[in-house]
Write a structure and sequence with these properties.
By secondary structure, the chain is α+β, with helices and mostly antiparallel strands. The protein is 30% helix and 23% strand. The structure holds 2-acetamido-2-deoxy-beta-D-glucopyranose (NAG) (4 copies). The site of one 2-acetamido-2-deoxy-beta-D-glucopyranose (NAG) has 4 residues, from strand 19.
């Protein structure tokens, strides 16, 4: 699992640089922060009075020698020495910012940039998935677009053409499932259902059997003028005739700049292409088959812009309106609706993807791209399986079965247990490695030698738990869960560094330096252990979670 915190970190860094530069310019006068002038008792003059009288405070410049390796300019006041925070930030990887409230300004220091979400109660496998209601998978940069054919994200993390990545698709589904449980009820407005609710379309249309029928082969245009704002989640049942260049187009207008964008849904196997102000999303068109689309029009616009490398900044929904809707070629339309959200249809798109793309022999969701091995590990060849993808897929399918009662979802979830019984050395068939030859570990990346990634393993355990709580048919899930929990408890403390946690055990399996988890991954470890501690009373889970949470506040394990 990956959390996009780079942007946040960057902001903090930029902020800090600005702070430091401005502090230096105020305190240091003409002196550059890296000049090595030796001065004795030279008072530093700042802006008159502004910083509580740096004038006459007795601050003098002094070189700080860093481990005898290099020096940086510091300040001294009597016996006290002040180091620039920009140095401390980089050297110790700690974070800080100026914050102004309650009428005064202070400097806020934090040891980590991540957050722990304390569970409110026992984990409910039918409820919110961890804290995923905060995820916006579709806006991640490594998501090329949401496929209009499948309704799920297309990843470009390891291959620019785009591919379906089970872990990402599951996170998209679980985020929408969780948002459905936590967000306010959506606003929704039907524009056209072919009978009861109709709109004033210009051009030649017909209404037949409760559907709208259109045909522009005579060169006419069909258009619905509109002025819709705020609610940009569009859903429609659509059957486009593929031979007739048929399309449905939403004309989006930026209300301030009056800029216009054409968002076309067309019959094509290409996920997305764009040229200037025209953005095309390819959907499935088959004679006699209705397609049900649920589209976030602003996300679709955003992806069209980043596809062309036009501004990557997040678009503000309040600045847009739907100026008109166009139909071209020929086809049928029903249930055209605009809403403020439509989470469950997006969740079920993910669930359907997992049913449709499961390998019937192995029960796996093979990943079609190569993943390069690092530090002497072999590449993962296309077709590899991930225990995290399997576990996350099971979490989606278990919830889909719970909501719908449709046994297809349950069957797919049970079948997905197959790879947990197969050794991870069998590419495309198995995900289980054995620590020291006997403790089973479900591998997020089935590398050779094994990598023992912690967060992906725990996500797979949560998937197994979600399934075993559905009842007796899931006895196999129960066995796999308990066997995995036993390994986790035995190996968990190998991940403890005394001041943070390791992402994996590669230092053990390949004899290199440990791969220390970034703070967002460390926070994920803590959040996962807190969740497990609500369903398993073994103190190793809660004790470790709480100790690891304290590492995020700068507390370290004591030394001898
Ligand atoms: C969640 O889903 C239910 C069932 O479809 C729906 O009635 C409800 O409005 C949804 N709520 C949100 C916030 O999406
Ligand atoms: C659209 O109209 C043309 C004639 O104007 C006709 O040949 C064609 O079959 C029509 N298409 C559909 C899908 O009805
Ligand atoms: C579809 O569009 C292409 C390109 O604009 C055009 O060459 C072709 O003639 C069109 N086909 C039909 C059936 O309108
Ligand atoms: C439109 O929605 C109604 C009510 O949910 C449904 O019965 C109908 O089948 C839908 N139309 C299509 C084409 O799916």
């Amino acid at each position: 699992m990956r959390v996009n915190l780079k942007v946040a970190i960057l902001c903090v860094c930029v902020g800090l640089t600005l702070i430091t530069v401005s502090v230096w310019t105020r305190c240091g006068g003409e002196l550059s922060p890296f000049s090595r002038r030796h001065t004795k008792q030279q008072p530093i003059h700042g802006d008159e009075g502004e910083r509580g009288g740096s004038e006459g405070t007795g601050l003098e410049e002094i070189d700080c020698q860093i481990n005898g390796d290099y020096s940086i300019p510091c300040r001294r006041e009597g016996d006290e020495v002040y180091l620039p925070f920009s140095f401390i930030h980089k050297y110790f990887e700690v974070y800080g910012k100026l914050a102004s409230y309650d009428g005064y300004e202070r400097f806020e220091w934090s040891h980590s940039y991540s957050k722990v979400y304390y569970p409110k109660g026992k984990y409910d496998p039918r409820g919110v998935f961890l804290y995923f209601e905060n995820y916006n998978v579709e806006l991640r940069e490594r998501v090329k677009c949401i496929s209009a054919a499948e309704g799920v994200p297309v990843s470009i993390q390891w291959q620019v053409q785009g591919y379906y990545y089970p872990t990402q698709i599951a996170q998209f589904g679980l985020a929408h499932y969780s948002k459905n449980l936590t967000e306010p009820e959506p606003r929704s407005r039907v524009l056209e259902d072919g009978s009861g609710v109709t709109s004033d379309w210009q051009g030649r249309i017909l209404r037949q059997d409760g559907r709208l029928v259109f045909n522009t082969s005579d060169g006419s245009q069909i258009l619905l003028k509109s002025d819709y704002v705020l609610d940009f989640i569009m859903s429609v049942d659509l059957m486009l005739r593929p031979g007739d260049n048929s399309s449905m187009t939403f004309v989006l207008q930026n209300r301030e700049k009056k800029e216009i964008w054409f968002l076309h849904y067309v019959c094509s196997s290409v996920h997305i292409y764009a040229k200037d102000h025209d953005i095309y999303h390819g959907m499935n068109c088959e004679d006699g088959v209705w397609a049900s689309l649920t589209r976030d029009l602003i996300v679709d616009l955003q992806k069209g812009l980043s596809f062309q490398e036009i501004p990557k900044r997040k678009l503000s929904r309040s600045k847009f309106k739907i100026a008109s809707i166009l139909l071209e070629g020929s086809g049928w339309l029903d249930n055209l609706t605009l809403s403020s959200s439509q989470h469950l249809p997006q969740f079920f798109a993910a669930a359907r993807w997992f049913v449709k793309h499961q390998d019937p022999d192995t029960g796996g969701w093979p990943i079609s791209v190569k993943r390069r091995g690092t530090q002497g590990m072999k590449d993962l060849q296309p077709g590899w399986l991930s225990a995290m993808g399997q576990g996350h897929g099971i979490s989606v399918l278990s919830r889909a079965y719970y909501l719908s009662g449709d046994s297809t979802y349950l069957e797919a979830a049970l079948k997905a247990l197959g790879p947990f019984h197969v050794d991870s050395r069998r590419t495309g068939a198995g995900v289980t490695a054995h620590f020291l030859g006997h403790l089973p570990w479900y591998e997020e990346y089935p590398t050779q030698p094994p990598s023992f990634v912690l967060n992906g393993f725990v996500y797979s355990l949560i998937g197994l738990y979600d399934l075993l709580t559905l009842g007796p048919p899931a006895r196999d899930a129960s066995m796999l869960f308990h066997q995995g929990m036993a390994s986790l408890k035995k190996l968990l403390l190998l991940f403890d560094t005394g001041s943070g946690s390791n992402y994996d055990l590669r230092h053990f399996s390949i004899g290199c330096a440990p791969n220390i988890a970034r703070w967002d991954y460390h926070a994920t470890h803590v959040n996962q252990l807190l969740l497990l501690a609500t369903i398993d009373p073994d103190p190793i889970l809660s004790n470790t979670a709480h100790r690891w949470a304290r590492y995020m506040m700068g507390k370290r394990a004591p030394h001898n």
